[in-house]
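Limitations
The structure tokens in this dataset are predictions for the assembled complex, not deposited experimental models. Users should treat interface geometry with appropriate caution, especially where small molecules or nucleic acid strands are included. An illustrative entry is reproduced here so readers can see what is and is not provided.
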Amino acid sequence: MTVAADADVERAALFAQRISVPTLVDTRNDLARLFGYRAIPNGFAFGRDGTLIGSKIAAFEIRDQATRDLVETWVSTKGPAGDATPLQEPSPEALDLFAEGSRLMREGRRDEALAAWARAFEKGPKNFVIRKQIWRSLYPDRFGDPIDIAWQKEEIAREDEIGFRAANPALAR
Amino acid sequence: MHPALDVELVDLDGRGHRLREHLGDPLIVFMWASW
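Predicted assembly:
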């Protein structure tokens, strides 16, 4: 199955229409707290008894043969396999602020939500889940089909150069 | 039982679900995002 790390279920649903397995949405980014990731794509495998038998953080690229091999191993051995991926240890404060922002967004309080997300990103400046969620809200035109990866690279360079808030003046304090 | 299996997620209609409802042999979860 798949889990989308989107705060917005409707946005996730647009993409999920093409996925043939069940999809759930982690609107509060709660799984990041448990698995310790700051970026996606990620893959996790659980045994029938609910134990975690494998994980791949931030590099679970299904187009890569190595990822497909890892999944095959999970399926065939039904046990621990592959290299354990080091956790990224996201800032708990950043995750709390992000969850607060997601709640505000669901309540339609967009400006307050963006302000909370911006504070979250400042607490965890390496957190791409938070950074991209902010972009997604500020620049929806950049997230059509296909997603504008070239723009994302330019935006990262611009933010690194002049600072995150200066590069995104629409963010409220 | 891993704690992630009890996290409340939502389906595409906004209804609450937990990964434990989908346990298989094994359950493989692919995490992605629209962004």
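Some entries come with short summary sentences. For this one: The longest strand of chain B covers residues 27-32.
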